[in-house]
Amino acid sequence: MSPRTRPRAPRAIAAACAVALILTGPAASAGDREHPHGIPAVQLERLDRGLVAAATADGTFLSWRLRGHEVTGHTDTGLAGPAFHVYRDGQRIATVTDSTNYLDRDGTPGSAYRVAAVVGDAEVDLSDEVSPWSGNHLDVPLRKPADGVTPAGEAYTYSVNDVSVGDVDGDGQYEYVVKWDPSNSKDVSQVGYTGPVYIDTYELDGTLLHRIDLGVNVRAGAHYVQFLVYDFDGDGRSEMMFKTAPGTKVIRYRPDGSVASERYITMPRQDRAAGYTHQDDYRLSAAGYYEHVVDMFLGWHRHPEVVAGRWPATLEDAFGIPRAYTYPLSGADARALADYFVDVYAPGRSTRNNLRAFQGFIVDGPEYLTVFEGGTGRELETIPYKPGRTDDGLRWGDYAMARIEPANRVDRFLATVAYLDGRRPSAVFARGYYTRTTLVAYHWNGKRLTEDWYADSGWVPMSNPFNDSPHGRDGTDPEYATLTTQGAHSLSVADVDADGRQEIVYGGATLDDDGSLLYSSFAPLPPGSADPGAVVRVGHGDALHVTDIDPERPGLEIYMVHEGGTFAPYGHALRDARTGEVIFGDYTGRDTGRGMVGDVAPEVRGLEVWPAMPPNAADLGIGLFSADGDLLAPTTPGTNMSIRWAADMTTQIVNGTATTVLQTPTVDDWRRGRLLTAEGTLANNGTKGNPALVADVFGDWREELLLRTADSTALRIHLSTEVTERKMFTLMHDPQYRADIARQQTSYNQPAYPGFYLASDVDWAKVPMPDYWAPGSVDALRDALDGCVRSGDVRARDAHRLTALLVHADGQVRGGNADAAAGALRRFVQQLDGPGVSAAARAALAYQADSIIRMLT
């Protein structure tokens, strides 16, 4: 059959029945659900067809999802699955078999479109009706927070920063979770106050569901706020999980936009008893920091490291000056030493150490982790953040190096979602990566957080916290000691050992699914380095990418850049993800700040890899590399963010920084040139130039580009309108990609990757068929049955016994009894063979029931 034909008018499903057969509909309430532990598949979202239409110069472009459970095999040009009838204004205009997009050259701005999946000769569901966008993008209206003024009198405004997505109401469509950053947002190394961070949740039409004000005790910046949006408990609705503090509150709105309620999170009982309140403000003024130093010096004689004899007994010894004071210090003596430290010692170490101006940081006060209900913002649970900061960074090495940076290494946070047991999503939160390194994994069951495991390198030993070199040293924990100095400004999850469970790739080290250390990668320093021949960590870096980069090698690979300069064995390297062993790489002798992977040279097998190019790149012989290490070109594409935009499955790059010169973001192809100029929008995070999000949020398998408008009054979603003849399931139904999308917002945003090789030369026979469980699927089938009853396609008396079977199946799912649930659904399918069920309803309901059975078994 031709991929696209113009057939005769069809006999479609009756309207009420058809609408119900979209396999969506709200999932059961959160209170009624807990993840079914017995379901033998990974939990992913139940998504609708995701049909979108966009006006182009050539007609109306339509794009929609192939859902993972619909894949039945492969062809030479894609995956096999249902065909699709395309409807314009109620009339069938085409049948599409080779893809999930279509260009209607006769469409008008007033046309209305639907698509129906077809199995055999029967339509088995019908999408929602959509109208065309006026162009290749859609604006989601946003409500910008009010401007503010810091305690220092500095004015600030707000702009959209990172965005994540989740289905917060169980309707099969994504909502958009927007982080608002103030204009005075800071890196952890930058001095000054910031405005508070806000996290909003919006429907696609711009309806603001709620706003969470993190309050003054959470500093704004890429390293501070890592927010996870995911269905953690398997109720079919996404929750949100992130770090909070006293002063964090949830704001809910009425339909007219006015505030309906404001409610602070629940502080733990012990904190309330200790006198902490939501009115507390822990931000340090310059004078407050000085008093903090005085207090630190007053307690010097009691510090555990001093008592143990591991640190100098006196501050004079630490500063290398003659002893002149008696310990415990008096208040006057502590101030004299504080003056010396701030005015003499610190500037003597580096002229950049202006501690008299140190302000705006938060070095004490409670820290929490809170779970919020995604649809309402309601607080579900708040617990103490693990681990706490302990101090202002003294034990983390923040005072040890020439550049004294209190509250720096201690406040480096990361977060991700991971399928540690291969089925249920866990939330993983990390603190630290230069010195002490910690990760903790939690499972949320709808009622409480349960710790899966905790990994902690232990403190890095220092002989003098005011003059030492703590990077690259082992921690004190016997198992996790070598985690130190290996983390990146992001992290990844992937099933690196092919056991069906995801591991945490923490830069140069990887934790197994049970939290044990799988490996920490070391290599010898080469000639010309700081210590040739010494075996050292591959070390910290800014960018990290994990997927099947080289399809000719078994398993996955890691591509990472490293900033250790002459102390790092590689500036960039490709490693085996299972073992951590280096496949190839180059020593650069300098901070190699960024790097990227992608299929930018489609004539070469595998994904290409490339680092950001240092000035001496030609001398070093680096540039664009093939997956097996061949130098392909001395020049490279950009490194800000990649995107799957083109019809041929090659990789494109999103360019455009947001520094003092605000560049318009673009989508560029290494061979074809510019494919999109996103006029009227801006990227985020300065030189990083990150979009708000790059993800497959609707339409076919390609990724959408989400950017803030220049005035941040809207979130603009750009859609690729190139017609493709490649049929692929939505990337959101690959567990590594879906977890990566949840992770993308963390720290220095990195692209999302599937857990298999996906490029222009993909071997479709090797693309894994999705095997997952979508919570709420049985509820959606009940909704479909009810719709067919209302339309007259199922008689009421037949519906009673059919409904009873679905109720039984749903109960078995909730109890984790997959086999019994599947048995009830098989009986449901058998009961459809009767005179009380129309042929169209029988085909559609049986197809959906069979789809659920496949998920369960």
Automatic annotation (TrEMBL):
What residue stretches are annotated with the FIMAH domain? 778-854
Domain Rhamnogalacturonan I lyase beta-sheet, residue spans = 43-133
Which GO BP terms sit in this record? carbohydrate metabolic process
Under the heading SUPFAM superfamilies, the entry gives: Integrin alpha N-terminal domain
Q: Does the keyword Amino-acid biosynthesis apply?
A: no
Q: Which organism is it from?
A: Catellatospora bangladeshensis
Ranges where the Rhamnogalacturonan lyase family 11 C-terminal domain occurs: 138-249, 354-766
Q: Which UniProt keywords apply?
A: Signal
Q: Which domain of life is it from?
A: Bacteria
InterPro entries recorded for this chain? FIMAH_dom, Ig-like_fold, Integrin_alpha_N, RGI_lyase, RGL11, RGL11_C
Official protein name in the record = Rhamnogalacturonan I lyase beta-sheet domain-containing protein
Per the UniProt record, one Pfam family is: RGL11_C
